[in-house]
């Protein structure tokens, strides 16, 4: 029996650890879903006037309402959506009725509409404040010279267009160009991979138990052969 104890103990302890990791990921999933629900509720709340000095952390996703006029100059951010396909986000400077200059994400245009003339327009915007974090080591560098942008870096875009480092992502707008489709904020772009991680850990636990059972079977078969040889 001693030959069975070590592999059995290793198998049970290893499986227990893997199962615990899976349960932990399910707990993380519940926590993350609660956060995403809170974010969606915040995004869809009643809009408020643009704060005087919005904070990138405390005011992220804050719904706001602003009126003013767009600049004719645009920044084009490459984007791909499941419903609309590949195209560009249209980012412009926006001068509010109070005289503040901020960034406005007007929404999506198809690739063949990227360079279509869109004159300045007077708009009333309902949208959300955001400071996107879209850059990782695989993201190409933005190219202002050719007006190809790959990440909405608010500080950089604000310098380029001479605005405050504040970005409003339009949810609805009056008087807007019908060729621009708003891409309103929601929580779908926030990673939530905990269920996949849980399935992976539980799957590894099953594999571990299967390997343990196989090892015990091999030991048992060896013992039977030894007993048969002695007989």
From TrEMBL:
Keywords per UniProt: Cell membrane, Membrane, Transmembrane, Transmembrane helix
Chief location bin: membrane
Name of the protein this chain belongs to: SURF1-like protein
Assigned protein family: Belongs to the SURF1 family.
One Pfam family recorded for the sequence: SURF1
Membrane topology: Multi-pass membrane protein
TM annotation in the entry: 195-217
Keyword Iron: no
GO cellular component terms, A-Z: plasma membrane
Cellular compartment(s): Cell membrane; Membrane
Taxonomic lineage: Bacteria, Pseudomonadati, Pseudomonadota, Alphaproteobacteria, Rhodobacterales
Isomerase keyword on record: no
PROSITE patterns: SURF1 (PS50895)
